[in-house]
Design a protein that fits this description.
binds NADP nicotinamide-adenine-dinucleotide phosphate; 36% helix; disordered N terminus; Rossmann fold; alpha/beta; 15% strand
Length: 343
């Protein structure tokens, strides 16, 4: 079964306040709208037999989108401007087209103006960079995304490096990642999926400071920035990767586990310390003759086993997935607010 490769914002469909403040101290974001008390997410019980509570990414992503829409309306009334997000798609992969369509819909729903460029599979790197440059120079565009994966003949690093750091809403620019890694340095943008994981922990009141955290996976777009964010939030962080000798033993020490691997049911119940919080980023198709599509999506975490041991867990789908696009909208709004000096 072919697995879709996600860009940081590719999705099927925030950050503890202390970290949020740290990250944005140099570029303060406008106030986050407090969640009305009657809509603060509470940990809902899982299915029978499970003790863990469900961390509901659908619910939180809706709250974030509502907050973004409200702030955009306020900004428009005050400045006459709305945020703009440009997406560049090269080639005709069906999954990429779906993601781009979903992003466009999500932008429209909150009042972000979408710009889209579709280039053929055989487009040159120069053509892509030319469009990036145009968007870099367009003051109505506040975020630029290049849909990944790019065709094989293109150099991803060169192309992503052409995006102006002030419009790098995916947060993949080396300067943004570098600042995330350094003490007392703060990125302009945090990559959307790990930002979404932190937002879930934050909104569900999961304590991070002083806790042991394990991140499984170290990709540039999820695992590595997730580990950096947890560290900035004062967790003690270990990273497990494909060469780690004793992943089960290391993961069992964690109060917080974030898994971003892409292997269905890798993380078993025996890997989890009783009471841990588990965030499952993985999205893996597995054959399912009973599904009309012939497959269903599961995470990296064996939900059936882990939900009996953890204290809280994200489901797949409906956990981290919906958060990624919500964080993209949030990053685009922050970028526009900086551009218009709107607090
Ligand atoms: N929910 C969302 O919005 C969203 C967004 C992005 C990605 N995803 C999903 O998250 C998963 C990871 O995505 P990605 O882009 O980060 O993947 P990736 O680039 O393929 O990275 C996978 C990471 O997992 C590690 N790994 C592989 N096999 C392992 C094993 N057996 N034990 C421990 N670590 C192992 C790899 O280690 P090495 O570094 O040693 O190779 C690598 O660091 C995928 O299922 C993807 O679909 C979801």
């Amino acid at each position: 079964m072919i697995r879709s490769r996600f860009s940081g914002t590719d999705d099927l469909e925030f950050i503890p306040s202390c970290v949020y403040d740290l990250i944005f101290r140099c570029h303060p974001p406008p106030s986050r709208q407090p969640i009305p008390s009657n809509s603060v997410p509470t940990l809902a019980a899982t299915d029978s037999g499970a003790s863990a509570k469900v961390i509901d990414g659908k619910l939180v992503s809706k709250q974030v989108k509502d907050e973004v829409a409200e702030e955009i309306a306020t900004m428009k009334a005050a400045t006459g401007h709305v945020p703009g997000l440009a997406v560049i798609l090269v080639g005709s992969r069906k999954d990429s087209q779906t993601y781009v369509r979903n992003k466009k819909k999500a932008c429209e729903a909150v009042g972000i103006k979408s710009f889209e460029v579709n280039l053929p599979e055989d487009a040159t790197e120069e053509e892509v960079i030319e469009h990036i440059s145009e968007f870099n120079n367009d003051s109505s565009v506040h975020g630029i995304l290049v849909q990944l994966p790019l065709p094989r003949h293109m150099n991803e690093e060169t192309i992503l490096g052409a995006v102006n750091i002030e419009k790098d809403v995916d947060g993949f620019h080396p300067l943004n990642i570098g600042r995330l890694a350094m003490q007392r340095r703060y990125p302009l943008f945090v990559p959307c999926t790990p930002k979404g994981c932190m937002e879930l922990l934050h909104r569900y009141g999961v304590e991070i400071k002083g806790k042991r955290a394990v991140v499984i996976g170290r990709s540039n777009i999820v695992g590595m920035p997730a580990a950096l964010l947890l560290q900035k939030a004062n967790a003690t962080v270990s990273i497990v990767h494909s060469n780690t000798k004793n992943p089960e033993e290391i993961t069992r020490q964690a109060d917080i586990v974030i898994s971003a691997v892409g292997v269905a049911n890798l993380v078993r119940g025996s890997w989890i310390k009783p009471g841990a919080t588990v965030i499952d980023v993985g999205i893996n198709p597995v054959d399912d003759a009973e599904s009309p599509r012939g497959y269903r999506l599961v995470g990296d975490v064996c939900y059936e086993e882990v939900s009996k041991i953890a204290s809280a867990i994200t489901p797949v789908p409906g956990g981290v997935g919906p958060m990624t696009i919500a964080m993209l909208l949030s990053n685009t709004l922050e970028s526009a607010k900086r551009a218009y000096n709107f607090k």
